[in-house]
Amino acid sequence: MARLTRDRLTWLIYLQLGVYGYFLYGFGPTLPLLRDEQGISRTLSGLHGTALAVGPLVAGLLGTRLVARWGRSAALWGGVFLVALAVVVYVSTTALPLTLFGAFLGTLGGSFLINAVAATLTDHHGPAGPAAISEGNAVAAAAGLVAPAMIGLATLTPVGWRAGLLLVVPMVLVLALTMRGTPIPEPTDIPTHHQGSTRLPARYWISWGVLACFISVEFCLTLWAADILHSRDGLSHGAAAASISGLVAGMFVGRLGGARLALRFGVDTLLYGALGLAGAGFLLFWASAAPPLALLGLFVCGLGVSLQYPLGIARAIDASDGRPDLAAARASLAAALAVGVGPFVLGALADQVGLHLAFLVVPVLLTAAAVGVRVGGRSRYDAAVPAS
Q1: Class assignment of domain 8-180+202-378?
Q2: Range 363-373 average pLDDT
Q3: Res 116: pLDDT
């Protein structure tokens, strides 16, 4: 069984992921509140999902150049500072172009961060890499668990929901003051125009497609679940925003437990189980108009969704033939496609057929992901980590 050792570098990365997790899982519940202030349709509000997608797209195109020129340290620290700037821009106005720009900056910084995180943890922890990635994402989910609750509480104050999201800024400042100087190992796998190839094998691109489905499911739920809890189940905006904590709580529990499971079982084995659990939770959430059952469904769905991104990115890196930084950067393009298309299509369909029917996009994506895992062949991690 692989062993995971948590040193100072590992904790730095975990905490940086926590900052991004707070932003990301706090952002979705603010959209219905912002939409009411802006007086726009769900389709136009869904453009925030598209703006979130542009960040990973730019990061995917520029990420390897950034790391090759300035190193992983620039990607990790520059990423979290961009997230803080994004929050300031997003909460400072109700003008749609600026709120869209804030969304873009947030995922641009976050994508630089998570790409460097995935590659660094893979190099640093070897066979325990998937467990470290899962545990780091558990920290992100823990911060994300707090975020919707803080947004909901902030709606009850004179300051409003913006105060809850602005907590990102002091988080970044405290992290920079307490963890500066932590050594960050630099990559050896990024090819330049003088050496190596930037081509990735076909099985990587199958894993890339699976990852896109995983990310799209997560963003469809985080960006739109609060809306359905308000419009169908009758929860207030504040209560619906806070209820997204149920989804993120499932993700936190799943990732924390999944880190241990990833040390004992293969990646593909865990992914099949995660897909089944997410499907069962979604069915309960979608079929129930009773808030307690819908929230239970969100929690169960979060348990399943929890392992999909961390194990999906580990699986993609494994399929890259020893190019973790390049594979992680290209994975940003999968995130761009997923975040830009999935939630926007769901929002546009909601304006045509209603939000409840539009949410059936989610099981379609889960099915496509399961097919991709099957077609993509067995992961090296699945072969190397026997069940025990």
Answers
A1: mainly alpha
A2: 93
A3: 86
Q: Name the one residue in this structure whose structure tokens are 């969704």.
A: 305
**Residue among 213, 383, 221 nearest 313 (CA):** 213
| DSSP 8-class letter at 185 | P
Q: Where are the alpha helices (DSSP H) in 1-95?
A: 8-38, 42-45, 47-70, 72-91
Supply 198's token pair. Answer: 């930037």
Residues in the chain: 388
Averaged pLDDT, 244-267: 82
pTM to 2 decimal places: 0.71
Structure tokens at 152: 């909901």
Residue ranges of alpha helices (H) inside 267-360 are 267-287, 291-306, 308-318, 324-353, 355-358
pLDDT tens digit string along 286-298?
998 788 898 999 9
Per residue, the 3-state secondary structure of 74-136, as one string, reads: HHHHHHHHHHHHHHHHHHCCCCHHHHHHHHHHHHHHHHHHHHHHHHHHHHHHHHHHHHHHHHH
Structure confidence at residue 241 (pLDDT): 75
Which of 265, 255, 212 minimizes the C-alpha distance to 372? 212
Whether residue 224 contacts residue 343, with contact meaning beta carbons closer than 8 Å, is answered with yes
> 78 vs 85, 158, 183, 372, CA distance in Å?
11, 33, 15, 34
Alpha helix segments (H runs only) across 307-323: 308-318
Q: Which tops the pLDDT comparison, 98 or 157?
A: 98
Contact yes or no for 249/299 (Cβ under 8 A) = yes
Tokens 């806070």 — which residue? 242
- H/E run at residue 138: helix 129-154
pLDDT value of residue 263: 77
Q: Given this model, what pLDDT does residue 388 score?
A: 40
d(CA 215, CA 220): 9
Look at residue 384 in the predicted model and tell me its pLDDT. 47
Spell out the domain ranges in the chain: 8-180+202-378
State pLDDT tens for residues 12-34.
999 999 999 999 888 988 988 89
Gap between the Cα atoms of 338 and 293, Å rounded: 28
Rg (CA), the chain: 19
Rounded distance between C-alpha atoms, residue 102 and residue 152, angstroms: 20
Asked if residues 60 and 339 have their Cβ atoms less than 8 Å apart, the reply is: no
CA distance 253 to 241: 20
